[in-house]
């Protein structure tokens, strides 16, 4: 009986592998694998980030913290999987309808995916969009130089960019704090506000804040 079950499993695996080799199903299978990769990558990225941020800055019981980590990881993983699925599906559909792949297909498919999957304004989506926005600005700057729209700088502009970014974000933190994303506010509060307060050596060097009622 056990041998029969093993043969059936091997036959099933052979059939699955044969299906995966069929070129006519490649586009559809690529969409499914994109969904898989989006889910896995989203979990890999979000789980350690949520773990660190939750235990550093969030209060509550261990159960509440673990639930928060699991929820953030699930949301990031799900959204990225849905987006990759939508994007690759629309790319395949457009290519099939027009008979070829053109640059606008990518822009259009990603716009639709972004609207449907990341259109809700929540902390997870907000972090992802801000992460992408910073990369887009750098990418467009480099593209403008490559295409000749902007002259090649004689010196590396990165020091100036670094100065302006840090100058702007600290000005916002000091005088318009509510405009910054909550996790950034928490990080900066820890670095710049909490470092102004101590009572003795324990909360000067060992702890950030005292937990007793001295």
TrEMBL record:
Gene Ontology CC terms: peroxisomal membrane
Xref: InterPro entries: Pmp4
Stated name of the protein: PXMP4 protein
């Amino acid at each position: 009986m056990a041998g029969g079950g093993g043969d059936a499993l091997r036959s099933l695996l052979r059939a699955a592998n044969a299906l995966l080799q069929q070129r006519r199903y490649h586009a559809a299978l690529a969409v499914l694998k994109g969904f898989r990769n989006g889910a896995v990558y989203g979990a890999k990225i979000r789980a350690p980030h949520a773990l660190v941020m939750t235990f550093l800055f969030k209060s509550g019981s261990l159960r509440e913290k673990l639930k928060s980590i699991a929820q953030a990881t699930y949301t990031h993983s799900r959204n990225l999987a849905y987006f990759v699925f939508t994007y690759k599906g629309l790319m395949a559909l457009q290519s099939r309808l027009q008979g070829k792949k053109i640059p606008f297909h990518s822009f259009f498919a990603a716009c639709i995916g972004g609207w449907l999957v990341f259109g809700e304004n929540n902390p997870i989506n907000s972090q992802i969009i801000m992460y992408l926005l910073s990369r887009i600005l750098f990418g467009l700057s480099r593209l403008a130089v490559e295409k000749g729209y902007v002259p090649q700088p004689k010196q590396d502009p990165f020091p100036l960019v670094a100065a302006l970014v840090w100058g702007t974000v600290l000005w916002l933190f000091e005088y318009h704090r509510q405009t910054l994303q909550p996790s950034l506010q928490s990080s900066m509060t820890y670095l710049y506000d909490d470092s102004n307060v101590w009572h003795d050596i324990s909360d000067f060097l060992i702890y950030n804040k005292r937990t007793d009622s001295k």
